[in-house]
Amino acid sequence: MRRQKIFHKYHFLSFVISVQAYLYSTYINSTAAKLGFSFTQIGLVNLILSIAYAMASVTLGHVGTRYGYKRTISFLAVYLFIVSMFGLFANNPEGLVIFAVLQGIFFGAFFPQVEGLIAKSESLLRIDPPSITGRFTLSWSTGNIIGVAFGPFLTVRAPGVIFVLGLIISGMTSLLVSLDYQKFGDTITFTPYRKLLEHSQNASVVTNKNAMRKLRLEYRIILFLGGLIYTSVLASFPKLMMLAGLKLENAGFLTVGANIGVLLTFVILQSWKGWVGNEYFCGILLSVVPMTGIIAFFAKNPLMFFLTALFAGFTYAVPYTFAIFYGLLSEEEEHGKQGALHEMVIGLLFGVGPLVGGMLFDKLGGNLGLLVYALSISVVIYLIQLLFNFAVQQQNQAK
Q1: Predicted confidence (pLDDT) per residue in 261-314, tens digit
Q2: Which of 123, 169, 237, 322 has its Cα between 20 and 30 A from that of 248?
Q3: Mean pLDDT to the nearest integer, 353-374
Q4: Do residues 144 and 234 make contact, with C-beta atoms less than 8 angstroms apart?
Q5: Which residues contact 46 (CB under 8 A, 6 or more apart)?
Q6: 116 SS3 class
Q7: Rounded to whole angstroms, how far apart are CA atoms 236 and 240?
Q8: Sign of CA dihedral 107, 108, 111, 113
Q9: How many whole angstroms separate alpha carbon 2 and alpha carbon 343?
């Protein structure tokens, strides 16, 4: 009898690639801070990176739907190997920008493939929909924690290690995924733990395709807005902490609070699924956005920096959970397309957030700038939620 499992090897792949993704992103932001970039200049680098990420998502992100997810992942891993070689020499402003674009293309194209592969394969196994998205987000968010925590430290102490890891991971990924495709085809083969097959009552909202499409659009917009805070924190905290007198090499151990916040949110929302289709609870959970700004205003020491980062993680993970759930599970046979659109939103917010945030930080100062940023975004988020719910009420009354 085959052993039942909760996670499988493609969750592990998502974890490993996420470690590398955040090692590279923290290398870019930490090196920019070390080279003396302003907050706005750091934001511009992230904007360029995010445009590359978003363009790769919408152009290459759904290639796996047509040519096979595993074959596409294997090919992309070869590309990452080449990019990692280039990264060994990306230690000046020009090289840093080029490297940011090249690695952004890979991650923008990669994550829709693994999202689509997991969603397609696990839907065929009839796994509970929130468990499909929940376990995937747990896998990559755990990897993010490691990447963010150690990225600045390695950037200062041993930057070559970051790129050697990239070479090893990309080479092994290309080989092992290619072999897996030859053996099992373009689906994931595993025996799921029986609890994963028990569908929650609230997951019945999946059967209402019109409601799912509305919720998908609503929370993709809110994800973009809420994620602006999170991405600003990740991009600007290394420089902000340097200005506060903290060592750059230790910045990651405080900034990682954001990724711990992401992981905690995913664990809680995976265990408690009352949020599915419940707009009232979703609105309460979104209150983490204004709370982040209030905490940030009082961030003067390492503990408050960590708490600010922690709540910034909440502002991203809450709407992310909603958006990926309604996105990947709202259209049958379009897992790759929905994954690509989802990653496009992610890519754009990782550029717009640091740029707008950086401009505010330069003009108002880090603490006050983040407070103004968070409160402004909160107003827009709740306005959007009210407008979407009002439109639904109007439709229901018209029937």
Answers
A1: 988 988 888 777 778 777 888 889 999 999 999 998 887 788 888 999 999 999
A2: 169
A3: 85
A4: no
A5: 28, 29, 100, 231, 235, 350, 351, 353, 354, 355
A6: helix
A7: 6
A8: negative
A9: 34
Render the burial of 240-264: b for 16+ CB within 10 Å, e for the rest: bbeebebebbebbbbbbbbbbbbbe
The answer to whether 232 and 370 are in contact (CB under 8 A) is: yes
Pick from 151, 111, 6: nearest CA to 344: 111
> Both ends of the chain: CA-CA distance in Å?
52
Strand partners, 5: 192
Cβ proximity of 219 and 319 under 8 Å: yes
Conformational region of residue 245, where left means phi above 0, alpha means psi within -120 to 50, and beta covers everything else: left
Q: Name the CA dihedral angle for 357, 363, 364, 370, rounded to a multiple of 10 degrees.
A: 0
Question: For tokens 């009420």, what's the residue?
Answer: 393
- Return the CATH number of 9-186+207-398, one of 3.40.1160.10, 1.20.1250.20, 1.25.40.10, 3.40.50.360: 1.20.1250.20
233 CB-near residues (< 8 Å, 6+ apart): 255, 258, 308, 309, 312, 370
Contact 320, 289 (CB under 8 A): no
Asked if 124 and 187 count as a contact pair (C-beta separation under 8 A), the reply is: yes
pTM score, whole prediction = 0.80
Residue 200: band (very low, low, confident or very high) from pLDDT cuts 50, 70, 90: low
